[in-house]
Amino acid sequence: MSTSIFDEAMPRQVANHCALGPVAFVERAGEVFAGVESVVHGQRRYTWHDTRERARRLAAALTGLGIERGDTVSLLLSNTPEMLEAHYAVPALGAVINALNTRLDAAALGWQMQHCEAQVLIVDSAFGVTARQAVAKLAHPPTIVDVIDSEFTGSGEPVGAHEYEALLAASDPIERLPNPFDEWDAIAVSYTSGTTGEPKGVVTHHRGAYLNAVCNAVTWTLPQGARYLWTLPMFHCNGWCFPWTVAMLGGTHVCLREVNAATILAAFREHRADHYCAAPLVHEMILKADPALHAGIDHPIRGMVAAAAPPATMISGMQALGIDITHVYGLTEVYGPAAVALKPADWTERSLEEKTRLNGRQGVRYALQDGMTVVDPDTREPVPADGITQGEIVFRGNIVMKGYLKRPDATAEAFQGGWFRTGDLAVLEPDGHVRIRDRAKDIIITGGENVSSLEIEDALYAHPGVGACAVVALPHPHWGETPLAFVERVPGGEVTPDQLIAHCRERLAGFKVPHHFRFEPIERTATGKIRKNVLRERARAIEPVPQKDR
What we know:
Layout: H1 23-32, E1 37-41, E2 44-47, H2 48-64, E3 72-76, H3 81-92, E4 96-99, H4 106-115, E5 118-124, H5 128-135, E6 143-147, E7 162-163, H6 164-169, E8 186-192, E9 200-205, H7 206-220, E10 227-229, H8 237-240, H9 242-248, E11 252-254, H10 261-271, E12 275-278, H11 280-287, E13 301-305, H12 312-321, E14 323-331, E15 336-340, H13 352-359, E16 364-365, E17 371-375, E18 390-396, E19 403-404, H14 408-414, E20 420-428, E21 434-439, E22 443-446, E23 449-452, H15 453-461, E24 466-476, E25 480-489, H16 497-505, E26 516-519, H17 532-540
Parallel strand pairs: 1-11, 3-4, 3-5, 5-6, 6-7, 10-11, 10-12, 12-13, 13-14, 25-26
Antiparallel strand pairs: 1-2, 8-9, 9-19, 14-15, 15-16, 17-18, 18-20, 20-21, 22-23, 24-25
């Protein structure tokens, strides 16, 4: 690269350049918003001075346990102050966050910790038994730190060699939560089922987390001092980077151990929470709650929805409650949401039908994402913006993962053509907004959780009474989607739904277990491949199932 007069005697140095990392927001919050409430959790209250101090102590404690740059710290925690503090302390050491899905079984958790070579596991005592089972067979089990949450009233069991609060009390805080050594350093590894059912470790970096934290504020025009309610599990893509967004704004984290209509609406009323993110299931929960629970909520609230487009009933119902809904789209590989369905200036004047249409789109790229478009899967050329020609959604820019951990083949495939390939099929509308038409990946989104149909099929095939099976998404009024299994019994077999449910429960996490079955012939191509497109069409024609507990 050639140089110019503007390069002479003006070197990059500490006075004019630093690596971007979201932990910098926490240091600033502790300085600028020292006395502002940072966390509300039951009877516990912390200021930003307190939270920064606790994060500095946790960083010191982890250093004492041997954690260094590039090491992995796994977190099996609810939405509690400790989960937030870990999102501040772990990256400050250059270490990598592995936030585990608390709904997974011990085998899946153990596999993930082994794959990312976790050296420390911080675990809520509510998940102690599962954690002990998860690490029992690991060749190099992590050091376990127990969190005994003051708001947990159920049965739990500490299983570690250290207790969180005692560890913090015994540790002198580090002087500062520093910026990363290199903004390209990994900040987190999050596991996604991907297209094959085999978990993939999505590795994200400090620069992307920093920029998407800013994008959250820009996209939502979040004000300073916003009071953010944790209805979204922080293990989902590191809470969509909101742990860092709230710090940037000197806002307040309102934590929830249990997410239900009563706790959510109480938090709106008692703590004046004014922003929250959630899957459609949670929004429906709020909408359908006992009207008495809505009493006393008199301030504007804004909700962000992902995983499925908000239907007309949700938009109108939430509007009547004083809740404004924004639809976003993304994947773990782009730090959670990285696109938004923008609302035109005359949004309030639009008809409900038009609002539903506009809000149903996956939208346009976030302000700090370099590119998002729809391309022809074969030529990799952008499709025309006609709202008709179908292609694959792709992203490019700083808010895209580094790659898949220990999977160079999958990483290369994902970035083929110079874009991150989502696998989601969509059209590009004349105004530049993207709208999904189908999913290339056989993923079922149930209650906001991504479930691989192939993983369920593998479990079903393990039953001796199953000759052939195929799993697709069935529309569900409560969960959004739920697994529907088409099954061909072995000749002479009489396997029943109850037997298959019991069989799957031994092999899958509860939310992955199918409860709906069709015992009938499964269409195949001439080469014997199951025609899932036909089965999906058949599923769409089925009357939506009634609400069913798992």
